[in-house]
Amino acid sequence: MSNHIDGSRNSCALHGALQLIEAIEGAVPVIHSNAGCGYQHFLGVNRLNAGGDAFGGPPVSSSNISEKHVVFGGSSRLREQLKNTIQVVEGDLYFIVSGCSTEMVGDDIPAMTKEGRDQNFPVIYANTPGFRGDVHHGYQLAVKALVEQLPDLLKAGRTRTAGQVNLWGVIPHQDPFWAGNLEEIGRLLEGIGLKPNLLLGYGQDVNGWHKVPDADLNIAVSIWGETPAKLLEERYGTPALTLEGLPVGAAAGRMLLAVSEKLGIDRERTESFVRSEENRLNRHLAALADTYYRAGFQLEFALVGESAQVVGLSEFLTSTLGLIPRTLVITDNPSEEAKATLQSLLAALVEGWGTELSFSEDHIEISGLIRSGGAGLVLGSALEEQVAVELGLPFLQVSFPLSGRVVINRGYAGYKGASSLLEDLGSVILSHALRADISSQDKHSRSGTVFYT
Amino acid sequence: MSNHIDGSRNSCALHGALQLIEAIEGAVPVIHSNAGCGYQHFLGVNRLNAGGDAFGGPPVSSSNISEKHVVFGGSSRLREQLKNTIQVVEGDLYFIVSGCSTEMVGDDIPAMTKEGRDQNFPVIYANTPGFRGDVHHGYQLAVKALVEQLPDLLKAGRTRTAGQVNLWGVIPHQDPFWAGNLEEIGRLLEGIGLKPNLLLGYGQDVNGWHKVPDADLNIAVSIWGETPAKLLEERYGTPALTLEGLPVGAAAGRMLLAVSEKLGIDRERTESFVRSEENRLNRHLAALADTYYRAGFQLEFALVGESAQVVGLSEFLTSTLGLIPRTLVITDNPSEEAKATLQSLLAALVEGWGTELSFSEDHIEISGLIRSGGAGLVLGSALEEQVAVELGLPFLQVSFPLSGRVVINRGYAGYKGASSLLEDLGSVILSHALRADISSQDKHSRSGTVFYT
Amino acid sequence: MSLLKAKSPRIREKRLDTLNAWLGDTAAAIAEFSGEDTVQRIRTFSQGAQDDLLYVLRLLAGIRNSVTIIHAPRGCAAAGLYHQVTSGRGHWIVSNLDQRDTIMGADRKLRKAVTAAHRQYRPEVIFIVASPVTAINNDDIQAVVEELHEELELPVVPVYVTGFASRNAVTGYDIALHSILKHSGGDRRVHQRSSKVNLLSVVEHPADRFEAERLLSSLGVDLNILPDGASSKTFRLATEARLSLSLDQDSENYLGVILRDEYRVPYIEQPRPVGVEATGRWLVAAGRALGIEDAASVLHEQESERVRRELGDFSLEGVRVYLALSPATAFAVADLVGEFGGEVAGITVSHLDKLHTARLEVLSRRSPALQLHVADGQPFEELNIVRRIAPDIYLGDAAHLGQVGRLGIPVVSLENTPVLGYNGVTGLARSLSLALRNRSFGAALAGIPTSYTGAWYRRSPNWHIKKEVR
Amino acid sequence: MSLLKAKSPRIREKRLDTLNAWLGDTAAAIAEFSGEDTVQRIRTFSQGAQDDLLYVLRLLAGIRNSVTIIHAPRGCAAAGLYHQVTSGRGHWIVSNLDQRDTIMGADRKLRKAVTAAHRQYRPEVIFIVASPVTAINNDDIQAVVEELHEELELPVVPVYVTGFASRNAVTGYDIALHSILKHSGGDRRVHQRSSKVNLLSVVEHPADRFEAERLLSSLGVDLNILPDGASSKTFRLATEARLSLSLDQDSENYLGVILRDEYRVPYIEQPRPVGVEATGRWLVAAGRALGIEDAASVLHEQESERVRRELGDFSLEGVRVYLALSPATAFAVADLVGEFGGEVAGITVSHLDKLHTARLEVLSRRSPALQLHVADGQPFEELNIVRRIAPDIYLGDAAHLGQVGRLGIPVVSLENTPVLGYNGVTGLARSLSLALRNRSFGAALAGIPTSYTGAWYRRSPNWHIKKEVR
């Protein structure tokens, strides 16, 4: 049984589907639900990722059902809305997503989709009521719909691109750095001669989704990419590779080597590319060393975020930057099976640190874990800022939701992402150290009034 | 006559030379001066650019002259130091730079260099006493030394690279974003088929400097690049292009078009590249629009920095982001001639805004200009933070010196730099707006105790 | 007898004939409300918009020492997350209904959530906000409320919102205010009147609230502000106040009416104090009711003199302005645009109802040709209209300004901009002046296409607005 | 007669036979200072290091209500910028001597700078710090000082530093303290002793100062702390104090001696209170002098019990530690490493002089084979030594730790880490424990080559240290 949640950060299935659709150029979500569902998504997701609002406002098509439709059914309202959406809104693909009320009422969304399809409209659908699950569930439902229904829409034949690799499991906005992370993973795959199919973000359109079946490999960047990868393995026999987490720094090199092996790519070429990336990062670390030592970077940290972030960031912070994981909180509701995998994975990573690993999405519970954990640095969402301030600790926003932070295409994945993380985290630790120094000056001159006068 | 300076940010000629030399891989500065000169440089320059400390500490070779050398001359000490530096410190080029005391004493540095050269040591020198000028002067002296003395050291013949472009006038650390800025300008030049010779930063070694005479074009990114460009025009007849300032956003497109014209490159290819960059940036702006409007980005700003930064950033903020320049302060001591050019350039840019343009390097004077200017946003160095806090304004550190900010290879030049600036400046404005909102809640509940009880 | 007897108030459509879709000139608008029964309009194409649930949450975010439990699937708490993260307001718990709960009900879950909220926060009041799912399911919230109210010795206030019963989000304010007053209102029997004056402020910008406070306090008025920043005690004190002053009739009307009709607190419903003249009239009206009219007039003179000085030669002479705001604000800002010498080129209001007939008549006399558009969150219509009208500047407070910006015109957001009183005048003048002086951001956005087809832009903007068939 | 008569104090080489280049075992070190005249060493290859000017600026950064004018070309103010930007300490003006000034002198410029500083900050005192250029040029600072001291009715204190007269930066502390006491010291005639106790603290970490304050204040000692955070008044009060307590003999010795010899304030020079035992001894020594020895003992018992509890099973058993610190700190931390059960594998001290013979003797008895290296800012020698010794961890406070890190070993910086007192013990234990537990950062740096040639690493580390020929 699910529990109530204080400060819920995982939104709902409908919102997860919207996040995916909005990140595909030319795809138009058609919401069949109350007026407020899309608006909630805009406030509670898009606006908490400032700088990543693709449409310039709330979703552009919503059937806004009213009492009449609740009582008598809303299928005809959806029919009307779909037809008019195609006339009003520019798009290559119209994607119907349903909310709680229309699902409870029992509107026949597949039938309405079929009607549209019969009129040659490029339409697909997914049943995404919020009561079916959270944002991650919604992402998976929408991906599944795309994989299963898109082939029926394809008219022309496809031209195969050798070395194509699809990327899965990066959920727009739920990872605030999704766009930059995808771009960097793409850059790295290109670096070893592959053709990444990012599927989401700038320049990624419906065409890319049509090419999904042609890939040589599907990479799951998070546990939420496993289902799509598995589905594609079943349908097209494409091999799949699941990463342990977001590949930050050296982990990106390991990813490239694993991909090379899987695809039989020249190992030496890959190794040489990895070496050059590795060397640049190490030079950056060396150029940071003076600051690292004098500002006391070697802190015990608390990290709150999605499983891929927690694994990826804590691996980099621990295995490269020398920090110590004290409190790790995974917030994305993994399945029991995934939890077990994550637990053993992280147990190996954090062995000997006395790290406390928890799974929670409750703001109050998470704040309590940080408070009792005793870390000297907090990385988390805007929701964790309060407890970090209360404890007087340096704090970096790395996970959803963000507040007061604009993200365009900054990312923390790969080698470039590792440098960005060094900049952001380094600035947080250094400025905290300087502030502490200055405020102790103040303290001194305050206490001075007692001793010196 | 020069004046005293409060909170001096332009260091000295010796330090400027060191900043250049330290950014060339394989170049080893040999300081001929007091022990403290290099250490001052480390504290007052390197440490105020956290994350960019190439050597892991103060300069690695310094003659540390003592009273005896002041009285009897220090040339023999330099001879000894140079010989031993070559034995102790790994390097491809040893670069003697002098400080005030050895210059006042009259040590014969050219003679010592010649002695080294006669023993086949790769040695050059520059006379860089602090009393001869500031960091910009030192940069120019060191570049001049490299251009004039390096050809004598070259043994093998050079292989010419077609389309090579040298970049000048970016002073490491004096522009805290020098490395990222150079990399991005390089990326853009590569985008139109050229071979940028960045000369400074990661992977840029003495070899790159040997190739300087072979370039098809010298680009001066700031007024401090004009002298090198002119020198090379005189010596090798290489054409030169001077940018108005750091090319941020659209200005980078104009730079590429100007370069194309100068070098007779296919205009259409360049235009198509510029369009794709431009389009991506505009999409980023559109994705930021909701935040822009609701957080009130359209502020009047004060900007304090080097001439290239002031021109480049204010141009982007004004001509693309819609902000209004209120107070501009140029801190890099341009010549009277350069001042006049800057004045007319900026007058055109800021026409009609009632902008106040000043030239100053004095902390107190600059703070006063910001205070009286009435801007709603401050961009400047760490020295301006105090007045921004005093006035309760959002503040972004963009110029030297930085405090509490780690920079690895972030930059504000070009199209990527424009996105980075949107992220950094956007975060500052947005978080300030949110804080204001939250603190007014507080104010309300405080005043509430008066009205509600 | 009492309005508060009902579980929730009548929806705006029924209470005030409120329209949320309409296009026409002001004379036609007046005609709509002159008959007995206004014909409702619907849209055959629509876009996501605010609903009553969202307005409920916005209002409750401002109640002090409260916790809000949203009895719904998890996504309905997204707006709560927004308020918490961006302005640090409210404590938000979602009961997190899953598929099984939608079938079996979820009393136990709700009970657990309320108990946990009580233990964690020790609030003065806990709100239980209903949702589309609980409305469709007919969940028995009342039983939980009664049981836990007893057990926890704490007001547990159910807020019966549906998300679909009304097309006007503003109904949500009525629902929230109704629920609060019903459950924590004071004694309805004969009251001693206190010296306090209620200042009715519903989700106003804090600076706007301060401005109203500043003016009234300087006249020695002893204020009791609600519901923004109010505690339970504030609501009790409100019923004993000598007077209620309005800041925005659209949002507060129901509160003022209840206090007047149920507790006999006189209610002055004056147009919003936006612009020098309207602020003066608002101040003087308050002064008159409180017997300090002269002092109010003197204050107005001083303040308007200051404003004149600060404005200098600022003018909107020759500037055509488009307004897209909630109606009371739109009409008030329209007057201010007039004060500034500008021309209102068109208006979109989020709804329109009987409360606005007087304002419509004034507007109709002044600008008979002015086109009025009624829409909440329908940028496809707005963009169609605005492209035709091609105003010099657009003022709005909606979430879709990012779309409007792509038309390449200057946009000023009033979502987080104070507009009330004398300080509102100078602040708005400054924003307008900056937006008109530097239009480069709009020019950059103009390179990005809007979401709509060429065919749509060729159609009439009201193409998808139809009379509702009943 | 008076030491303060001189323009500046004798350099450390002359006053205490201070060495800044040396390598050998502890017995040999003792032998160096046993004779009449210690032979100075020089380096035939050297690296940039701190000088007396930098130490002067560090000390002056801590003087309250002061402005420092650096009478020099612009680059000499870089360290001032560092202090201002990173810790908000000091106001720094550079007179900005140019080429012409080095020939013609710059009295007028200096006068202008002093006047401007007075006008801008209204300080209690203005320092004029000399520099290599003014020292070589023999600029007449004194005339300006005398003239403006009169005119501005303000202490204008010249600080005659050269940057080259001494090879030991620590001379700078003596020069600064000499100058301050000379110009703003109290009356030298018979004094009434006050109840105050001077706590001598020279550029200590603020947390270290607080720790010393915390301990002494809890014993009821009325402290007068200087020079860190001191104002002019603090220095006047210091001359009337009943006692001076030392925190770091290296930096304060001159101050303690002057106060003792010139103002007859008794001076207790106890080793630094680093580690439980040394802190206890320091506390009890202070207690003894103040007649509160029992209370001091009780406090020591309580605090050491707390430290034991907090340390738990932390131990450096089997861990070989390299120390590179200023001498008094190095010797004190060496003891603490012993308390922790670890082994000191080698020590670099920034200088070594007669003040250290007692400590050297203790060390010599305990670890006769221990190698002592004397160097300030000579990482080429340190890296050569550390590579040979291959310790498990390196503790240092120099600016070149970034170079040491490239050897791949854990590095702990004491530059900004408190070490004093009981809290210093637990804090340092925590840092050491973290550094030893996670060595990955060092491993990443190990991929980056150090700056030195293979030939150098094959040479003896003292290859470039030679006896000075006089």
Characterise this structure.
The complex is a heterotetramer, with 2 copies of chain A (453 residues) and 2 copies of chain C (470 residues). Chain A is of the alpha/beta class. Chain A has helices at residues 13-22, 36-44, 67-72, 75-88, 100-105, 109-118, 135-153, 178-191, 206-210, 226-236, 250-263, 267-295, 307-319, 336-349, 363-373, 385-391, 414-451, and strands at 5-6, 27-32, 93-98, 123-126, 164-168, 195-197, 217-220, 240-242, 300-305, 324-330, 356-359, 377-380, 395-397. Chain A contains 17 helices and 13 strands. Chain A has a 5-stranded parallel β-sheet, sandwiched between helices. Chain A has a 4-stranded parallel β-sheet with strand order 6-5-7-8, sandwiched between helices. Chain C has 470 residues and is an alpha/beta fold.
Q: Which short descriptors sum up this protein?
A:
heterotetramer, A: 453 residues, alpha/beta, four-stranded parallel beta sheet, 13 strands, disordered C terminus, C: alpha/beta, 21 helices, 16 strands, 47% helix
Q: What gap, in angstroms, lies between the N and C termini of chain C?
A: 30 Å
Q: Give the CA-based shape of chain A.
A: globular
Structural class of chain A: alpha/beta
- The value of Rg of chain C in angstroms is 23 Å
* Structural shape of chain C: globular
Mean pLDDT of chain C: 94
Oligomeric state, counting identical vs distinct chains: heterotetramer
Number of strands of chain A: 13
Stretches of chain A where pLDDT is under 50 for at least 5 consecutive residues are: 442-453
Ends distance of chain A: 66 Å
How does the SSE layout of this entry go?
The complex is a heterotetramer, with 2 copies of chain A (453 residues) and 2 copies of chain C (470 residues).
Chain A (H helix, E strand, L loop, with lengths): L4 E2 L6 H10 L4 E6 L3 H9 L22 H6 L2 H14 L4 E6 L1 H6 L3 H10 L4 E4 L8 H19 L10 E5 L9 H14 L3 E3 L8 H5 L6 E4 L5 H11 L3 E3 L7 H14 L3 H29 L4 E6 L1 H13 L4 E7 L5 H14 L6 E4 L3 H11 L3 E4 L4 H7 L3 E3 L16 H38 L2
Parallel strand pairs in A: 2-3, 3-4, 5-6, 5-7, 7-8, 9-10, 9-12, 10-11, 12-13
Helix pairs in contact in A: 1-7, 4-6, 7-10, 8-17, 11-12, 12-17, 13-14, 15-16
Chain C lengths: L11 H5 L5 E4 H9 L6 E3 L8 H10 L4 E5 L7 H10 L4 E3 L4 H6 L2 H15 L3 E5 L2 H6 L3 H12 L3 E4 L11 H14 L12 E5 L4 H13 L4 E5 L4 H7 L4 E4 L2 H15 L3 E2 L7 H15 L2 H19 L8 E6 L1 H13 L3 E7 L7 H10 L4 E4 L4 H11 L3 E4 L4 H4 L6 E3 L7 H17 L2 H6 L8 H5 L6 E3 L3
